[in-house]
Amino acid sequence: MTNVIMLGPPGSGKGTQAERLSHTYGWPQISTGNILRHAIEAKTELGLKAKDAMDAGELVSDEIVDGIVAERISHDDCIKGFILDGFPRDLIQAKALDEIRKIDVVFDIRVPEEELVERLSMRRVCDCGETYHLKYNPPQKEGVCNSCGRKLYHREDDKVETIRHRLQVYHSQTEPLIHYYSGKGVLVDIDGTKHIDDVFKNIVSNLPDEAKQ
């Protein structure tokens, strides 16, 4: 069994790396956002509590999120391991997780802030679901979607002021987690500035030996 946590700021590529790890080893990628939506759609007891909080414009409490995560990792597909993407967000959630499952390795994907701002601020999206990057994956015609011909737009979340605020919030929440898992001897720093394939190779090389057998 190998239980993994992926840490990394917005734009670091942690979701992509978690997905690749899931495809390679068969461990489910568990995103807090996804399992919250599923719990709400399934109208579970915790899902209904989460919906009530969201409908009231409130944050979903740690207790509810912890319960939804605990329920998800109890499924049969997590017997051999899982990859948590977006959880825990703070020390309270990390300590609650310790009561549920042992974590074998925590990958912290690090990318300098200015590079993150460039990665995110140059993203453009289309209502059809296509996503572009003005530097790495530009549309064939400026401002127009290759697939449907509609006009691309710049999401509020991808504007520089919003990005810097998101990064500030992330670091304030995550710094204590880095110290926490470092103290447990399970934290591995990953250079997220390298090519996507090199980042993945680095992650795989730092998995516990039993995971790679």
Could you characterize what this model shows?
This protein is α/β, with parallel strands linked by helices and 213 residues long. It has one domain: Rossmann fold. It contains eight helices and seven strands, in the order βαβαααβαβαββαβα. Strands 2-3-1-4-7 form a five-stranded parallel beta sheet, sandwiched between helices. The protein has a two-stranded antiparallel ribbon with strand order 5-6. β5 (123-125) and β6 form a beta hairpin. α2 (32-42) packs across α4 (62-72), α3 (45-55) packs antiparallel against α4 and α4 (62-72) runs parallel beside α5 (91-98). The longest helix is centred in the last third of the chain and has 24 residues, at 160-183. The protein is globular, with a radius of gyration of 18 Å. The termini are close together. The model has no long low-confidence stretch (mean pLDDT 92).
Task: Name the average pLDDT.
Answer: 92
Q: Assign a percent range to the helix content.
A: 40-55%
Helix and strand string, N-terminal first? Answer: EHEHHHEHEHEEHEH
CATH class, anyone?
Answer: Alpha Beta
- Beta-strand percent range: 5-15%
CATH architecture level-2 label: 3-Layer(aba) Sandwich
Please provide the count of β strands. Answer: 7
Query: How is the largest sheet built, in terms of strand order?
Result: 2-3-1-4-7
Radius of gyration based on Cα positions: 18 Å
Task: Tell me the distance between the termini.
Answer: 11 Å
Main sheet: strands, sense, barrel: 5 strands, parallel
- CATH topology group: Rossmann fold
Shape: globular
Please give the domain count.
1
Name of the CATH homologous superfamily: P-loop containing nucleotide triphosphate hydrolases
Q: With helices defined by DSSP (H or I, 4 residues minimum), what is the helix count?
A: 8
User: Which regions are unreliable across 5 or more consecutive residues at pLDDT < 50?
Assistant: none
SSE-based structural type: alpha/beta
